[in-house]
Design goal:
There is one protein chain. By secondary structure, the chain is mostly beta strands. The protein is built from two helices and ten strands. The protein is globular and about 35 Å long. It starts with a strand and ends with a helix.
Length: 133
C-alpha cells in the first residue's frame, strides 16, 4: 500500500497521502468506501493514523510508526493550548483546541479531537479492530 485516504476528524475534508513520498492531495470528496484513516493538519504539522494488516500506524514527519498498547501516549490541556505526545517515538505536537470537534458518546469530555480520541482509546481492543484492514 502506498496511498491511503484519510478524513479530517470531525469535518468533511479528505486527504490522499502517498506514504513513501509524503505527497498529499486534499479534497472535499471521499473516494474510497468505508473507514480509511484520520488526519490532523495545521500550518506546520501533518499527523495521520490509518489501518494496516498489522493494526494502526501513524504517519508523522515522513515516518510510518506502529501504535501499540505498550506506548506512552498522553495529552496535556491548558485552556485552549494542547500538547499531544508519544514519548516512545519522541513526538510532541502542540496545537490549539481544534475547530473540528467531534462527539464521542463513550467519552466524558465535551470536546473530542483526534488526539484525545487516540489517548482515550489506544488501549482498547475495539480501537485495534477498527484500525486493522
Amino acid at each position: 500500500m502506498s496511498w491511503v485516504e484519510l478524513s479530517n476528524y470531525g469535518s468533511s475534508e479528505y486527504c490522499e497521502l502517498e506514504l513513501i513520498t509524503g505527497e498529499k492531495s486534499f479534497s472535499k470528496t471521499k473516494k474510497k468506501a468505508g473507514f480509511t484513516g484520520l488526519y490532523y493538519s495545521d500550518q506546520s504539522t501533518f499527523f495521520a493514523i490509518y489501518p494496516t494488516n498489522n493494526g494502526p500506524y501513524i504517519y508523522y514527519q515522513g515516518k510510518q510508526l506502529p501504535i501499540s498498547t505498550k506506548l506512552s501516549i498522553c495529552l496535556d490541556k491548558d485552556g485552549k493550548e494542547r500538547s499531544f505526545s508519544i514519548l516512545d517515538y519522541n513526538i510532541e505536537i502542540k496545537y490549539k483546541e481544534s475547530p473540528y470537534i467531534g462527539f464521542d458518546v463513550w467519552s466524558e469530555e465535551i470536546d473530542v479531537d483526534l488526539f484525545l480520541m487516540i489517548v482515550q482509546n489506544y488501549k482498547s481492543d475495539s480501537f485495534y479492530e477498527k484500525f486493522t484492514s
